[in-house]
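Proteins fold reproducibly. Consider a sample protein:
=====
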Amino acid sequence: MPGGVSSPVRAFKSVGGEPVVFDRVKGAYAWDVDGNKYIDYVGSWGPAIVGHANDEVLDYLRQTLEKGTSFGAPGPLENVLAQQVIDAVPSVEMVRFTNSGTEACMGMLRLVRAFTKRDTIIKFDGCYHGHADSFLVQAGSGVATLGLPDSPGVPAGATKGTMVATYNDLASVEAILKVNDVAAVILEPVVGNSGFIKPTKEFLVGLRELTTKYGALLVFDEVMTGFRIAYGGAQQYFGVTPDVTTMGKVIGGGLPVGAYGGRKDIMELVAPAGPMYQAGTLSGNPLAMAAGIKTLEILRRPGAYEHLEAITSKLINGILAAGREKGHAVTGGSIAGMFGFFFNEGPVNSFADASKSDTKKFGRWHRLMLERGVYLAPSQYEAGFTSLAHTDADVDKTIEIAKEVFSLL
């Protein structure tokens, strides 16, 4: 396997040392092949919001497994999860399931161009929307971690229609909209692939107003934020409704899944209802649907998001206080079960701000935390995640370890 991994950021290239090889996970914890136990704040990069290997999710998966692993035909669970998504996410009137967030964003991209009959899109520096050619322009996530502004093998023609604006900067967006016929403005409503970066409410409201003014669609990539920062995603949390939404991670409950959805008049262009072609052999897989259905059921229970908010804010505030007490420049924040911090004076409102962080210090911090049993995203440019399984005791232990580690840097 190239680099010994199946996805680049897992290789620990930006933090040094050898990657941890997991043997099993349960609740808030992971165990490596040598038997070492870790408090896990990666959560399979977001899906494990109810905790790893949740007993209720596993039981429902076993029941579903007895009926078969894949149908290649319509199944009832697709309809159940589709209705749950439509009921929860303000922008979604129809939804198409895929097998990954990248695949969802690929379908979304073709859809917005088909609907508007325009080719140009606007994305933001440091926002990652999967590894499709059109999006690998000033992308975040593994691209930022590896220091690659874009990727070899992407033809110039593939990115000709991709324009890049600055996150939290409406003027940079309107400057492009004024002189281009733009199909869509696409963004992570809370950035998680350049580290954790919040938008201002004015920025999101302004994007809604600008896209309407110039006849472009507004797309929220909620692969990371969907069902994580609120049950209805960032669009519910901030009260700004896009035209199209992409999703993944949480809606599959730990199994491979993605989805894109939006207004009915837009989604009816998708085949077979309309001419915009997109397909997938394993799309709507019954196991992924089952895990997603049970996960969303658990998230609807009273107190779920209150727990995530309390546990995560306690964690990030404790880490920041510990760092500042030891004289380190740190800044960060959280929303519900998503968090992040930078070795940076702050504030961090864009990828340009994030790129000023001390990544070498982060690498040392990550290694020392790992050696003490805390598993964090192996990159300064990735958000962290908590779950319903994380406890106050887990957070207290993490903060105590962080205090020790900050004193060693």
